Amino acid sequence: MPNSLKDIMELHWLFDMLNHIDLGLVVLDQNYKVTLWNSFMENHSGKSSSIAKDQSLFDLFPEIDKEWLQRKLDNVIALKTPIFVSWEQQPYLFAFKSYRPITGLADNMYQNITLRPLANADGTIHHVCIAVYDVTDAATHKLALSSANRQLEQLSKTDALTELHNRGSLEKALSIIFSAYQEKPTSAHSLAIVDLDYFKKINDQYGHPIGDLVLKEVAKLMSESTRRGDFVGRYGGEEFVVLLPNTSSEGAVSFCEKLRKKIEATDFKTDKGNIKITISLGVAQLTEQDVNTSSWLTRADEALYKAKTAGRNQTVC
């Protein structure tokens, strides 16, 4: 076979491979006009090569951030080095629909982009190739994994029933406030332990599902009553903890009394009728005599015990 014919065949094969390879290939000149537009781009954009050729890329896709892409293309030509843009920096350059719009996790195709300079025989650069890689599967899997990890992390900090902070989160929050107080002991921080009065009777009379409903509703009322920056957690069973940073014992008692009266006035609606409930609260302000968070908690717990032995439905500091 003559060399010239062989060269033509190899060139034909090369163009056929470039045209049907499973990635987008776009070649732009220095004026950002399209000189090559392969079948990947045709299939996903809906724009044929005959339409795209000699057209400005920014006229074809006005939604592209023109200033951003021009700056990168100019840098490729000036520096004669490729530039890579991952989907994590920018989800996509071309807003192509995902292959799997029904079963997939993404509406649009996630893309990795490579901008590569194309050298002429004399070494000058007048064209840039944009390679578009479909990385939707990898991207969505990574995003799904990140989302799952965030949910697991949240679950590890949250009480499953009430969706309040759990005891582990409480211990961390107490440690943070305690450390801050050691650095600045002039600040006032208070802690309240809340216990539902005669809660066992509710479980015995109405059943545990109704008891769980009451716990959830009380937790909701507590969350709604706190300020931004306060900490509300479930301590265990029917006991809750409210951590009130930058709050004196007087301010904490005022907060607790408002909460106590709100819960006392609430009719908890259940499918077995309305239920009334009261709470008892013990308050302790952090002091220099507290050698650790346990002693602070113990003082609040002792105040709660006094509230319950004194007749319940009250706040003791």
TrEMBL record:
Residues 187-317 form the GGDEF domain. One of its GO terms (cellular component) is plasma membrane. It holds the Pfam family GGDEF. GO terms for molecular function: diguanylate cyclase activity. One of its GO terms (biological process) is negative regulation of bacterial-type flagellum-dependent cell motility. Its EC number is 2.7.7.65. It is an enzyme of class 2 (transferase). Its cofactor is Mg(2+). This is diguanylate cyclase. The lineage of its organism: Bacteria, Pseudomonadati, Pseudomonadota, Gammaproteobacteria, Oceanospirillales.
